[in-house]
Amino acid sequence: MTKSILLVGVGGQGTILASKLLTTGLMEAGYDVKMSEIHGMSQRGGSVSSQVRYGDKVESPVIEIGGADILVSFEKMEALRWLEYLKIGGKIVVNNFQIKPVSLLSGKGEYSDKILDELKDKADTIIVDAAEKARELGNERVMNVILLGSTVKLMNLQEIDWDKIIEENVKSQFVEINKRALQAGMDLV
Amino acid sequence: MKKLLTGNEAIARGAYEAGVRYAAAYPGTPSTEILENITQYEEIKAEWAANEKVALESSIGASIAGARAIASMKHVGLNVASDPLMSFAYTGVTGGLVIVTADEPGQHSSQTEQDNRHFAPFAKIPMLEPSDSQESKDMVKIALEISEEFDTPVLLRTTTRVCHSKSIVDCYDREEVPIIEYKKNKQKYITVPAFAKILRVKVEERIEKLKEYSNNTPLNFIEWNDKKIGVISSGMCFNYAKEVFGESASYLKLGFTYPLPDEMIKEFASQVDKIYIIEENDPIIEERVKMLGFDCHGVDTFPPYGELTPDIIRKSVEGSTKPSLEYDKSMVVPRPPTLCAGCPHRGFFYELRKIIAKKNAVVVGDIGCYTLGMAEPYDGIDFTINMGSAYPAAHGAQSVFNMLEDNKRRVIAMQGDSTFFHTGISGLLSTVFNKGNTINVVLDNRATAMTGHQDNPGTGYTAEKDPTISLDIETLVRACGINNVISVNPNDLEAMRNAFNWALAIEDEPSVIITRWPCALKKFTKEDREEFEGLFSDKYEVEEEVCIGCKRCTKTGCPAIEFKTDINKSYIDYNQCVGCSVCYQVCPTGAIRKVVK
């Protein structure tokens, strides 16, 4: 049975590293894995997604509308943007963190404070304070790996040797903090 | 050894394993990472060419000299390279040559959605289409073998989803392929009419042999399941089709797609009840199947444009996508791409807007990050057609405006440094030669920025990061015959404004303004740090008590600046600010100040 994990966020938040660690771990655990990302013009501060699928045999690397088992959003509004991709009965992991779109920066509109309520109303939603946790760990950038930790736990993938995956794919000076971030993410859910 | 690779990484790996010795490309989404990844293999000489035509031509030279070669480009790049393609299709190869065309169904980063499968029959060369990373790697090797066996360049057609999706690939060691001894062969390699007429006949003979190959290669195969539905598909669409139909359909999977395998199509089509052709964009397979006398469903069922993702296929066939949540989308605001904090184009566009308003100027854009200057708050572009078109299109427009009585309208054209080297120089040359009077801007941000900061003839480094010449644009422009050239730092708004006024005062000759400051996201070279003093080393902040809430700083469009409506003051995000100082210069009250460290 193929499982689908949709990681979404804003360009620069580290969805690409999170999906790289995730897919490498899944491959080493013996799953067939496919992953799709769109790079290029849409990326600078734009909405980004990494679509990860794994199982015995994966056909499409692209997740369908209504097809994701779990929607992991690195930013609140992005969870809502991509919500139609969640399977009925699927789970949402959302980072309690907002990045204002440029159109709202000039003061012409407001970032809605009802987004988390809407998410909770529609699906099983787990709110993760990854930014706060990352700052506690000493580097806001590890927010992505905290969210990865939460995802791993919710998808029952803790058996994979994530420490080894981090050691092999992260620059040596950031290995320790990322290991702690992954564990912290698991502990948050 | 198993690796998780993108299609582009797999193509690079395939070139390595198959003994390729020479690779050339011009950056373009979604093809860029092919050459970037090839640079990691020392056995292959990997080069960024000035443009796609040059990339293919130098690859042709490598092939003629006896080595296996690969040229890669995005779909519109093959338009530029189509001239050598058509001729080299006649001469054939010595060392195998693969041309990768990376198409963009869905136009994620492109001006057109052209279906480059048309190039194969147009040039009369074979075409392969991988559907995942394993096939991407394998097909490079097979394509090189076909190239050498049938004496032809081979088109390897991928799409964005193949290029940028990862899947598991079995990797092996490199097999060295000796360089074939060079022998002069004028009848084969000089395309004068007397020889080309003979080559022309051989092209037709080659196609006949390739038809036979197509019907027998394992690249085309049938997977029998239930025979009520038969799907014929190629590339990424094959995976999508399998996702949607599973074992409820039989499949004819096409990996070798020109010439198509007529016999295999007949065998398949005659045994299934209903045929779906699942292909993105143009109905190429569909028309062939129909020509062979079979009813089938293609563009009558699926959209003939955009990506054909599994949900679109499902909706087209079953009437709806999988069930999904209904929710309030009104809270979701778009996130269009914008010029980054510290982008050196910001100062240019900020001043340009004022010039446009004052002088009724028409502004011609080109292909690069600066295309984003079309949007608010800059509204800085009238038209953008294709790469390298800004200067000549501006010249044509200015020539017509000049015909109008009492014309005051001036035309300003912009190109980035990489675009200028790509196909800009010849346009500028033509403007000078024909006594034009346009204002031509080179936005030199010291990199091919949009595609990820690849090197170009101006950066001082090759693709393999060897130090090389750093072409001086000002000298080159003067050598083209331009008498009026000025170089400015675009972050200095007064200098930028003066440059525009200087150029506008030159009414009967063309002028060139070079804005020179590196992209804020670039990994700066030693030379960048030497040339550009204080390169993004400052931070700016808003002194709240002095800010009058005039919003002038927000009109720079900098994503680091936020206007706080609750207190009616601007705010600069410390982490995003890189200290370009543009907002500092526009603030009328001095509320924006340098952060004291």
Key features of this structure:
heterodimer; A: 189 residues; alpha/beta; 6-stranded mixed β-sheet; B: alpha/beta; Rossmann fold; 4 domains; 21 helices
Side-by-side strand order of the widest sheet of chain B:
3-2-4-5-7-6-12
Please give the oligomerization state of what you see: heterodimer
Using the coordinates shown, work out and report the CATH topology of the largest domain in chain B: Rossmann fold
How would a crystallographer describe the biggest sheet of chain B?
Answer: 7 strands, mixed
The chain-level structural class of chain B is alpha/beta
Can you describe this structure?
The complex is a heterodimer of chains A (189) and B (597). Chain A is of the alpha/beta class and 189 residues long. In chain A, 41% of the residues lie in helices and 23% in strands. In chain A, strands 2-3-1-4-5-6 form a six-stranded mixed sheet, with helices on both faces. In chain A, strand 4 (68-73), helix 2 (76-81) and strand 5 form a beta-alpha-beta unit. The two termini of chain A are 24 Å apart. The mean pLDDT of chain A is 94. A seven-stranded mixed sheet of chain B has the order 3-2-4-5-7-6-12, sandwiched between helices. In chain B, strands 14-15-16-18-17 form a five-stranded parallel sheet, with helices on both faces. In chain B, strands 9-11-10-13 form a four-stranded mixed sheet, sandwiched between helices. In chain B, 53% of the residues are buried. With 597 residues, chain B is α/β, with parallel strands linked by helices. In chain B, helix 19 links the parallel strand 17 (484-488) and strand 18 (511-516). At the A-B interface, helix 1, strand 2, helix 2, strand 5 and helix 3 of A face helix 8, strand 8, helix 11, helix 14 and strand 20 of B. Strand 2 of chain A pairs antiparallel with strand 8 of chain B, so a sheet runs across the interface.
